[in-house]
Task: inverse folding
């Protein structure tokens, strides 16, 4: 068991936000930092795995928001790390929609359906905004009478809202950083940029972080906090103490109550945590002995139109990222993700092959391997990323981020503008530490003021004693040789009471 040793700051979670927080702390002279990570690696929801002879990204896979006037910090890190990427444009997917008979939906019909879906979403957004402006409740905005949507409408609705993200108004990421997106296609993985970043402030060797301030396989289960600081207990019985803690775990983990708080978090904080949705985003990888799908410009992404919304809807081939890999990726979300996570990989292969045979015929080869990430059932993640409503209460965003005493919160879910993105996680780590540094400065000022206020009475007493002593000395009728003072020896004075 580790012996408790008080640190300045404990950071719980070594994902993007946790590491960026550690970086800023150490660069600002707060080197007495401990980073506790529950898993056996850094990166959080950035995670690579070898599959089919290449490296695939189970979590974050794109750098979103590139090419604008303002540089995206994730893109800057990627360039600094010489991370290999390839340009990705899935807007063409709407023109590669297959029905269950394997027919391609005419591009004109697809374009009209997509425009209809966007217009409908924008109209709903305007109604929501108008209702909120007049003090109304978002939840009671009247919906038009439901109509039976066709498979193509369901497929486009899924693509627009679930795959791209639940945002239809101009997204801050694109307006601030640019509208280009790049797929990470590097054998070292997306996580390589984190190791390169760590080289600036942690001891690393041959791509591994060996700094003793980073402690892996430390599952935090209890956090005791008071005005005097925090005590953190881990699953293996270790105890860590600090003046402050930065909690860089996912919103899903906060909702799952993996970590208990003593005393409990205030009601305003827990209510804000529970109000935030968690998006489950599952990329299923399938390996084949040969290609049987179209390749070439505008063919990287394709869509399957089914009567069931989100049923193996959005597909991507990996030939642009890894030529000759013969890998397809299909994206599931939320309910479909949870359903597939709960079943065997054999069942998932059977379902996916049924969909592919609908699109490309019964004579296509069978998949030789499958990889199914299980983010929802991972107790250290419990989902993929946060999902604020299109129109959200700004108070909820504020309360999600707001500290509770010496506990500070960070992560992509605390970002008002960039929630759900890697750069959002990176920037919130910096923002949280800046807030913490301000609080530490205020605490130092308060401590200094307290010392001054306590010392004033003592100084006054000392001055009084000096005056009494001086009066007593001058009243004595004795001569003190001057050479005793010059020699540095004071005479011993005796007082008659």
Result:
């Amino acid at each position: 068991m580790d012996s408790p040793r008080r640190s300045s700051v404990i950071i719980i979670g070594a994902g993007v936000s946790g590491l960026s927080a550690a970086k800023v702390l150490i660069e600002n002279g707060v080197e007495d930092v401990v980073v506790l990570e529950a898993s056996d690696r850094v990166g959080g929801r950035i995670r690579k795995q070898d599959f089919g002879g290449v490296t695939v990204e189970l979590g974050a896979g794109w750098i979103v928001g590139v090419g604008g006037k303002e540089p995206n910090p994730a893109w800057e890190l990627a360039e600094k790390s010489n991370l290999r990427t390839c340009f990705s444009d899935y807007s063409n997917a709407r023109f590669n929609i297959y029905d269950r008979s394997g027919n391609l939906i005419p591009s004109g019909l697809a374009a009209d359906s997509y425009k209809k879906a966007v217009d409908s979403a924008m109209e709903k957004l305007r109604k929501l905004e108008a209702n909120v402006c007049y003090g109304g409740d978002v939840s009671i905005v009247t919906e038009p009478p439901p109509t039976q949507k066709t498979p193509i409408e369901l497929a486009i609705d899924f693509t627009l809202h679930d795959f791209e993200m639940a945002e239809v108004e101009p997204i801050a990421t694109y307006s601030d950083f640019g509208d280009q997106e790049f797929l990470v296609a590097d054998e070292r993985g997306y996580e390589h940029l984190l190791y390169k970043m760590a080289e600036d402030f942690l001891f690393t060797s041959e791509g591994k972080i060996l700094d003793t301030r980073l402690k892996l396989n430390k599952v935090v289960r209890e956090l005791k906090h008071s005005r005097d600081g925090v005590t953190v207990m881990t699953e293996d019985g270790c105890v860590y103490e600090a003046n402050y803690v930065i909690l860089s775990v996912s919103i899903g983990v906060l909702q799952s109550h993996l970590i208990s708080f003593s005393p409990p978090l205030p009601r305003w904080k827990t209510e804000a945590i529970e109000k935030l949705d968690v998006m489950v985003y599952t990329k299923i990888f399938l390996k084949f002995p040969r290609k049987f799908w179209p390749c070439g410009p505008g063919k990287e992404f394709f869509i399957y139109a089914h009567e069931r919304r989100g049923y193996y809807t959005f597909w991507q081939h990996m030939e642009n990222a890894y030529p000759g890999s013969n890998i397809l990726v299909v994206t599931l979300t939320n309910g479909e993700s949870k359903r597939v996570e709960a079943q065997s990989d054999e069942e998932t292969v059977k379902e996916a092959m049924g969909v592919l045979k609908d699109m490309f015929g019964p004579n296509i080869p069978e998949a030789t391997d499958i990889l199914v990430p299980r983010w929802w059932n991972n107790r250290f993640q419990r989902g993929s990323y946060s999902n604020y409503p299109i129109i959200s209460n700004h108070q909820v965003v504020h309360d999600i981020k707001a500290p509770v005493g010496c506990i500070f919160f960070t992560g992509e879910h605390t970002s008002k503008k960039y929630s759900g993105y890697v750069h959002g996680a990176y920037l919130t780590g910096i923002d949280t530490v800046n807030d913490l540094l301000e609080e530490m400065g205020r605490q130092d000022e308060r401590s200094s003021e307290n010392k001054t206020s306590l010392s004033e009475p003592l100084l006054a007493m000392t001055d009084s004693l000096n005056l009494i002593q001086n009066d007593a000395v001058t009243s004595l009728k004795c001569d003190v040789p001057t050479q005793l003072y010059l020699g540095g020896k004071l005479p011993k004075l005796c007082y008659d009471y």
